[in-house]
């Protein structure tokens, strides 16, 4: 898959993703704690999506600390900027997720209000960060991006390059497929109902922490800590599950025969019921890694 195709995919998924993003941001929250962002003088958020925790980082960081965020989806960049503009300008801060398309379209990425707090948001590709010089940042965060990109080792190399010696990296990727029903339920039901063929190629789920530890070691990172963490999703029924499905899946359903769609919906319901009987919400498992660039 080429980068332009992936960019378009994320552009079209941006609204849905930011609406449903509260669950995956919990992993990002863990990274922020583990990396002690309050002590950092310069932070970069790589593949920031809708910037769901940026307001938290802004409140927590030192006032002069530089905070840079980027995503390769232009829509994600604009949504993040519009959310943060609203957060920084409105008195009642409760509703920054309720931004209009007009607010998104008209947002100024170079707004003075961003400069005042040393915050910036831009478009960039995590694998080629030529716009940032070597040894620039104390903290590099990337939540749920490395498993989605064609060359994660190259992204890791770029992270290493732009971190200062002693700077800290924090990344998360999907963990075990069996513990991630929140993300697999649709695909499982699509395959069982005959709407989708069994996917070819390697899985994006990592069944062990070893490959990501090795990737960090290969790059020269030290003080590596790597662990799994599960997070519940508030997907209680078919409609909730649909809210998080990507545009490709919706397209498949739109074009499928009605009886297959019915079969698909029954299977989703069946899986939801099975999990409910175990008193278990749908989960997503992630592997988290924090590490330090050698001094
Ligand atoms: C699962 S979302 C995670 C977003 C955010 N970090 C969060 O915690 O919610 C993945 C994000 O990575 C972005 N992305 C994917 N490939 C990228 C690349 N090569 N460079 C930069 N961003 C990328 C997507 O546009 C999307 O916003």
Describe this structure in words.
The chain is an alpha/beta fold and 295 residues long. It has one domain (3-176, 198-230, 283-293): Vaccinia Virus protein VP39 (Rossmann fold, 3-Layer(aba) Sandwich). The chain is built from twelve helices and seven strands. The chain has a seven-stranded mixed beta sheet with strand order 3-2-1-4-5-7-6, with helices on both faces. It starts with a helix and ends with a strand. The model has no long low-confidence stretch (mean pLDDT 92). S-adenosylmethionine is lined by residues 6, 10, 21, 24-25, 28, 47-49, 52, 71-73, 76, 125-127, 143-145, 148-149.
Largest sheet: 7 strands, mixed
Strand order within the widest beta sheet: 3-2-1-4-5-7-6
N-to-C span: 37 Å
Which class best fits the helix and strand makeup? alpha/beta
Ligand inventory reads: S-adenosylmethionine
Name the average pLDDT: 92
Give the ordered list of helices and strands: HHEHEHHHEEHEHHEHHHE
Strand residue percentage: 15-25%
The number of helical elements comes to 12
What is the CATH class? Answer: Alpha Beta
Shape: globular
Examine the coordinates and then state which fold CATH places here, giving the name of the CATH topology.
Rossmann fold
- Could you give the count of β-strands? 7
Second CATH tier, the architecture: 3-Layer(aba) Sandwich
Computed CA radius of gyration, to the nearest angstrom: 20 Å
Helix content: 40-55%
Low-confidence segments, given as residue ranges, are: none
Looking at this structure, what is the CATH superfamily? Vaccinia Virus protein VP39
């Amino acid at each position: 898959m080429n980068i332009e195709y992936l960019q378009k995919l994320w552009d079209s998924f941006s609204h849905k993703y930011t609406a449903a993003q509260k669950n995956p941001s919990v992993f990002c929250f863990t990274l922020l704690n583990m990396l002690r962002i309050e002590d950092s003088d310069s932070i970069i958020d790589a593949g920031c999506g809708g910037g769901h925790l940026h307001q938290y980082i802004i409140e927590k960081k030192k006032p002069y600390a530089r905070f840079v965020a980027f995503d390769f989806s232009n829509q994600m960049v604009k949504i993040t900027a519009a959310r943060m503009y609203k957060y920084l300008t409105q008195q009642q801060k409760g509703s920054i997720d309720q931004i209009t398309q007009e607010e998104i379209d008209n947002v100024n990425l170079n707004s003075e209000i961003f400069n005042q707090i040393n915050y910036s948001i831009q478009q960039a590709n995590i694998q080629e960060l030529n716009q940032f010089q070597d040894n620039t940042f104390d903290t590099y965060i990337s939540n749920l991006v490395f498993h989605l990109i064609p060359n994660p080792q190259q992204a890791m190399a770029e992270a290493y390059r732009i971190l200062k010696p002693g700077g800290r990296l924090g990344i998360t990727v999907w963990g075990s497929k069996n513990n991630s029903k929140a993300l697999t339920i649709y695909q499982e039901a699509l395959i069982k109902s005959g709407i989708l063929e069994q996917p070819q190629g390697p899985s994006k789920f990592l069944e062990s922490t070893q490959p990501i530890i090795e990737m960090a070691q290969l790059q020269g990172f030290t003080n590596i800590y790597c662990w799994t963490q599960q997070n519940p999703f508030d997907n209680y029924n078919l409609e909730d599950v649909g809210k998080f499905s990507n545009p490709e899946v919706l397209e498949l359903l739109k074009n499928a025969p009605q009886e297959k769609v019915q079969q698909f919906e029954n299977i989703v319901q069946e899986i939801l019921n099975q999990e409910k009987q175990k008193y278990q919400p749908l989960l997503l498992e992630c592997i988290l890694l924090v590490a330090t660039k050698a001094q």
